[in-house]
Every structure is written in C-alpha cells, then in structure tokens.
Amino acid sequence: MKTMFPLTRRGLLSAGVAGAGLVVLHPFAARAQAGQAHLRIMETTDLHVHVWPYDYYADEAVDTLGASRTAALINAVRAEAGNSILFDNGDFLQGNPMGDYIAYERGMAEGQTHPIVTAMNEIGVEAGTLGNHEFNYGLDFLKQSLANAGFPLVCANIAVTQGSAPTEDETLLPPYTVLERELTDGTGATHPIRLGVIGFVPPQVMQWDRKHLEGNVSARDIVAAAEAWVPKLRDEGVDLVIALCHSGIGAAAHTDGMENAAIPLAAVDGIDVILTGHAHLVFPGSDFDGVEGVDNAAGTISGKPGVMAGFWGSHMGLVDLLLERQGDGWTIVSHSSEARPIYERDADRNVTPLVESVAAVEESVATEHQETLDYVRRPVGKTSAPLYSYFALVADDPSVQIVSNAQAWYIAQMLAGTPHEGLPILSAAAPFKAGGRGGPDYYTDVPAGDIAIKNVADLYLYPNTIRAVKVTGAEVKDWLERSAGAFNQITPGEADQVLLNPDFPSYNFDIIDGVTFRIDLSQPSKYDRDGNVVAEGANRIVDLAYDGQPIDPAAEFIVATNNYRAEGGGSFPGNDGSTIVFEGPDTNRDVIVRYIVDQGTIDPKADGNWSFQPLDGATVLFDSGRAGEAYLADIKGLNIEAAGEGEGGFARYRITL
C-alpha cells in the first residue's frame, strides 16, 4: 500500500506552496481524534487540453484557465492535509488548438505521451474517467493517448460488446478500480482504506461521435449501469465509493438515457461521493440555487457530498470528509464541498489571478505549447474573399456568413440519421466585433488569402457551444423581428436620420441564413432591447421567403445557433430551451475551424439574403471603422457612401434608402 500523500519529491515541493507562513488546518483535521481521519478529495474536470494559461485562439496569455494554475491549488491542499487524493473527471483530450494539433498533425506514435496526459501525470492525478470529448478523434487515437497515463481510467457505461446485463458487458475501459491507501488519523496513527472509483459518460456520445463509435461500441444509461456495477464494487470490500460523473446536474427524476444524470446517479445506493462535470458550471454555486435534488449550502447532490469544478482549469473541486473508523471500515461523519477558483472577476469584469502557475507543469509540455503556437499562427486554409465586419449591422456580411455556413454544415452532419433529417436547416449568427463600446478599431478584418486558426477568434469571440432548435415559420419571422430592434424607426422623406439604436448590442443582431427578407424601417420595432413586445402589430420583416416562396408560418425549420441563444439568451422567440433538438459538444469556434480545414478554401462572400426596404427620400447615418471605406464597393444592394468624421474616432457613413 502507498500513503495517501507520500513525502516524495512532489510532496516536498507541494509543501513549499504554503511558503514560510502558518498552514491553517481544516476544522475536520483540527478535531479529528483517534480513529478519525480527514480526507480531502480533489477534482479537476473539463480541462480540454488547457495546460498553460494561454488562449491560443486570441494568441495571448490569460489568467482564467490552465491546469498549471489549478495545480497550485492542488499543491496547497496537499500541503495542508495529511490525507488527500486527486481525480480527473474527463473531457481532457480535446477542446483547444493544442488538442487539434496533436490529433490532426503531430499524431500519437507509439511511445509518445499526449501533452495533457503528461500534465496530469505531473500534477499527480490518481484516477480518472472519460468525458464525451475523449471520443472526438476516434477510438485508436484515444487508446494511444491513454497508453502512458500514470493512473487508472474507468468507465462503466461504454461497452465493446453488450451482454444481457451491464455487468456482463465487455467494457471499453474497466468499469471501476479499487485504490488501496492509508489514512493518518488525529493521533498520527495510520489505517488502511479501500476506495472504489467508478466512472460514467453521457450516452449521447453515440450521436455526437457516431462516425467513430457506431458499430464499435455502445452506450448504456448512466443510472442503469451504476445500479448494476456499484453493488459489485461494494462486494470488493471498499470503504467508500466515489463516482466520477462526467455528466451535469440536470433533472432530479431519472429518465432513460438522460445526458445530465448527476442527481439520480448520486441517489444510487452505495455511492458515497459524486464528482461531476460536463456542464462547465460550478457547484456549489449560484447556478444551482433552488434546484430540486441539490443543496447548495451543504454541497450535496441527492444528499451525497458532491462538487463540480467549472471548466478549463478555472476551479479545483474539493470535497472534505471527516471519516471515522468502525471495525475494519470507515464511515462519513461530516462533509463539506467547495469549488476553489484560480481567479476572481470584479463588477467591471476585470480579472485578478489568485494563484501563479506551477512551473513544473508548464515545463512538462513546453515543447508542445510552442508547437501549438506555431500551429495556430500557420495557415490551415484559405479565404477567397476578405472577412470584415465594418458593415455587419447594415448589410449581409462576410464575417457573419462564414459562421452561418459552418454552423449549417455541422448541424446537417449531426442530424443525419435522426428523426429531424430532412427538415430545412437555417443558420443564425450575429456580429460580435462591430464597433460600439469596443471602439473604432473593434472590427474583424482578415484579408483574402491564408487563414490561421487564431483568426477564428476574430470571427467568434465567445466559447459558446453549438445548438440546433426546431421552430416554426412564424417563429423564424419573430426571431428576425427581435433582431430588427437594432434600428431606430425611420421617417420616409427625411435626410440623415440616425440608423442604429445605441442601446442594442450587436451580438443580438441575428441574421438567419437560408431565408430571404427585407427590413421595413418605417415600422416601429415589435420588441424593445430586452425582448419585450412593445408594438404587437409591427411588421418590420417583409417579403420573408424560403426557397423562393413566402414562408409558411406553420412550417417547421431547424435553426443552427449557439447555447446562449437556444437557452433563452437575448429573449428571442422560439428560444427558451424547450425547442432544442440537438446539443452539440463542440464550441462554435471548433466548428468553424473544422469547416475551414474541411473546405480548404472557404468562400465567405455574403449571399445578400437580406436588405432594407426602400424608403423614398430617406437617408440614414451610422458610424463604423475608418478602414471600412476600402470595402464600400464590395457591398451589393446598398447605396452607401462615406460621410465624413464620426465621433470618438469613428468614420461616418450615409445610406440612401
């Protein structure tokens, strides 16, 4: 047996994190008596290959992510505690350009170690499970990537061959493992403990990575697998069962095949502690106030101690247990949970780091970090036309067009073979860098020619994930009516009226590709900036058509979008979470990168699917970047000209309606 926190080189280095100051004991450690021990269970989850605190898309260092930062929190806990153990909860193999670089370019030759596995070995992970993103590059790549992991990985609900019951499956990985350790009690005496560790992944991997998994493996329901395997794990004589649940905190009631099954999983008899992830949220935390089946104050899920540690290394999950020796086993006397952050953000969105990187973790993958920088700075495709957003709020725009194209391409693949195959696929996208409060230089401007991965940050600023919703033709129209709130009401016959509503954020100006329409600015906006109906009978969206025919209000459409919009962000009609028919595991950024790689040369020229309704004698003014003047001739169907100086360094433009 090995001690829970052996005084190896790693242990001595970890102790140094506390510095020369006094190490403050946790109350459980302070009050532990003979036969009582304080055990600290730590979690990393959803690392997504983020080792260095670096945003490869933006090509800049950041303070909000990185396992090298999380490692500082882990080392501090090891320095404070006599008994600690670290688990990883999956989604480590994919999710940033380093992951794509290893998978698509460098590869995994025999004997090589994947950089995230190298980092996890350096940090001292003692067991882990798979997340859904581990399957993104195929089973052979997964097998090669795990070969040099210095810790066991488990997954109970993915089978190579299924038996008549889960316990008769030939699982892809062992369903569970038993870790034999020693605990030091309050008097310094040591006692053995057997920890059972079992892992689970959403069964939706069979849909998300169908091309890699279909015919090779199958997935079982998380709770059904647990109900079968946990008793067998208990039969191994374990003292505690820790569930590594790469599944979010969703509904309290179990339904077969549910994606976010943490609450019913925690309720399975025999599970003592549950570590969750997948949802990129923080528990305990405000995201779960009032959620049935969880107790934020107590840090429990179905009454069991649990934690969810954010994503990309933003937090370290920590479950503290006060254990008591009873006969030959241990029972939980008290528990607490927290998710410790690596940074804090103030009311003005300013970030302050709370820890510094652990140099040994960064150094362990320094070569791959530099290779990734070279990769993101090198062209991965070409664009046949410039990508710019200077006029994204007044005309169909190439920077928005490429996002729409990529989303529609991806969703068409994901819905193939599903009940939704065959429905018309539209795509909704909005400009993110469109001046405004960002200033006169806050625009996308990528010239025609080579395009690098880091350029994708210019096209898509946020780490949203892809979604598809099913809406009616009437909801498509209202979706666009909501977007049209970006404009002030314009009076025919009047000159140089102000076009844009300054209170309307550009990220809420969704243009839906796949339909054609015009915007009648003489009408009032049906919605205010918050999405409330203020003019019931207003109809700014006119001549709305699909496939050349007036759109049928009752027809059904699939719209590719992002999680923010689909789940209600911006209060858009048809988007309240209930219309989602596909929840993709990939970020919209990743979708764009894959699309560029697949296409080789992209053609982002705007297709001109929307325009303003002519208004006799009316002209309007709006401000944009000075560099936009070079692209005026490219804007089709819009009578636009430079109109002098705007305010605050902007240039002014005039449109004759």
Entry summary:
By secondary structure, this protein is an alpha/beta fold. Helices cover 22% and strands 28% of the residues.
Walk me through the structure.
With 657 residues, this protein is of the alpha/beta class. It folds into 2 domains: 2-20 and 37-373, 4-Layer Sandwich (Purple Acid Phosphatase, chain A, domain 2); 379-656, 5'-nucleotidase,  domain 2 (Alpha-Beta Complex). Helix content is 22%, strand content 28%. It has 17 helices and 40 strands. The strands form 10 sheets. Strands 1, 10, 11, 13, 14, 15, 16, 17 and 18 form a 9-stranded mixed beta sheet that branches. Helix 1 (9-16) packs across helix 3 (67-80). The chain is elongated and about 90 Å long. Belongs to the 5'-nucleotidase family. Residues 39-280 form the Calcineurin-like phosphoesterase domain. One of its GO terms (cellular component) is outer membrane-bounded periplasmic space. Keywords: Hydrolase, Metal-binding, Nucleotide-binding, Signal. One of its GO terms (molecular function) is nucleotide binding.
